[in-house]
Write a structure and sequence with these properties.
180 residues, alpha+beta, 5-stranded antiparallel β-sheet, two-stranded antiparallel ribbon, 3 helices, 28% helix, binds zinc ion
C-alpha cells in the first residue's frame, strides 16, 4: 500500500528507530508498503521513519543505475565496514525539490536481516553504497542535510517550510463522481 511520506523538517525524522525483534507478518507488510511507496514516488530508497514508523527497516532498488543489483529489504542494517570517499548529488523523498553534493564512503559492507529474518551481509559500491548510507542515516534520525553546512541546511529548511505551508493551504482536488 502506498503511504504518505513525511516531509522534513518533521519531529519523527529526527528520532532514532528501534530495532526489530522478529521479522513477522507486520514487518513484512511494512516492507511491502515501503516498496510500494518508494516505487510510486519514485525513488531508489526509503526508510520506515519516512512513513512515520520508528523501526529499523529500509528498502533499496538501484537497478536504474546498477542493472546487476536487485531490490533489497534490510531489517536492522549495520554498517560494518566503510572504505574510500566519494561525492554524489543526493536527493531525499522527504525533501522534494532539493539535491546537494554529499561526501560518503565509496564502499560499504552492511549486515542485516532479510525479509525472511535470515542474516545477510552485502558488500556494495556506487549508488547502492550511497543509498545504504543515506537510508541507515534515517534510522538514527539523520537526513543528508546533516552532512552539509549549517547555512545550506538553514536555507533548505526555509524553502521546505514554505513548500509545506503551500501544500497545507492548497485546495484539495475536486471530488470526482459520487461525492455528495
Ligand atoms: Zn532520504
Amino acid at each position: 500500500m502506498v503511504r504518505d511520506i513525511l516531509l522534513w523538517p518533521h519531529p519523527l525524522l529526527s528520532q532514532v528507530a528501534a530495532p526489530v525483534d522478529a521479522v513477522d507478518a507486520s514487518v513484512q507488510a511494512l516492507i511491502g508498503d515501503l516498496f510500494d511507496t518508494m516505487y510510486a514516488a519514485p525513488g531508489v530508497g526509503l526508510a520506515a521513519p519516512q512513513l512515520g514508523v520508528l523501526r529499523q527497516v529500509i528498502v533499496l532498488d538501484t537497478r536504474a543505475r546498477q542493472p546487476e543489483s536487485c531490490p533489497i529489504a534490510m531489517v536492522n542494517p549495520r554498517l560494518v565496514a566503510l572504505a574510500g570517499t566519494t561525492t554524489y548529488r543526493e536527493g531525499c523523498l522527504s525533501i522534494p525539490g532539493e539535491a546537494e553534493e554529499v561526501e560518503r564512503a565509496e564502499r560499504v559492507s552492511v549486515e542485516y536481516l532479510d525479509e525472511l529474518g535470515q542474516p545477510q551481509r552485502l558488500d556494495c559500491e556506487g549508488l547502492l553504497a550511497i543509498a545504504v548510507q543515506h537510508e541507515t542515516d534515517h534510522l538514527v534520525g539523520r537526513v543528508y542535510l546533516d552532512h552539509l553546512s549549517p547555512l545550506t541546511r538553514a536555507l533548505i529548511r526555509q524553502r521546505m517550510r514554505r513548500r509545506k505551508r503551500e501544500r497545507a493551504s492548497a485546495r484539495p482536488a475536486a471530488p470526482v463522481g459520487e461525492a455528495l
